Amino acid sequence: MSRGRSWARARSSPPAPATAVPATDSSPGRLRELFQGRYLRRTVVVSALWFAAYYVNYGIATWMPSLYTKTFGPDLTTALVYTLLNNVTGLLGTLVIALILGPVVVGALLAAGGGLTLIFAQLACLAAVGAVIALFAVETKGRTLAQLNS
């Protein structure tokens, strides 16, 4: 009978109080926080991605006027204008993708049940495909930049 009484007492006791949700800190963060704690790894990864992207971009952009003049034959001024148009178009395309299409794609992946791991795995696969294409490009296979520029 003691079992029945303990059950009755447990049933009649008030529920445990709900735990309060901790208040969020609305103060602005400091720059040094990017290099501490949980943000350190994220900062390193994003910095490495930006470095790799800009290294490739500026490497190509530096050689573009020479490649235009040697391959297609325009004068240097026209080649520089083509390079400027190439850079401006790349910037505008990046902004369009980042501000319009990027959130749509990420939102669709998250809504479909994918997490951030899936998104980063897809970005890694895209980078790998780009690397394979760059390594096996017919125009540059086995040739140095000096050979391409001559």
TrEMBL record:
Transmembrane domains' residue ranges: 44-68, 88-111, 118-138
Chain spans, region Disordered: 1-26
Entry annotated with the keyword Repressor: no
InterPro entries in UniProt: MFS_trans_sf
Keyword annotations: Membrane, Transmembrane, Transmembrane helix
Name used for this protein in its record: MFS transporter
UniProt source species: Streptomyces lunalinharesii
Lineage of producing organism: Bacteria, Bacillati, Actinomycetota, Actinomycetes, Kitasatosporales
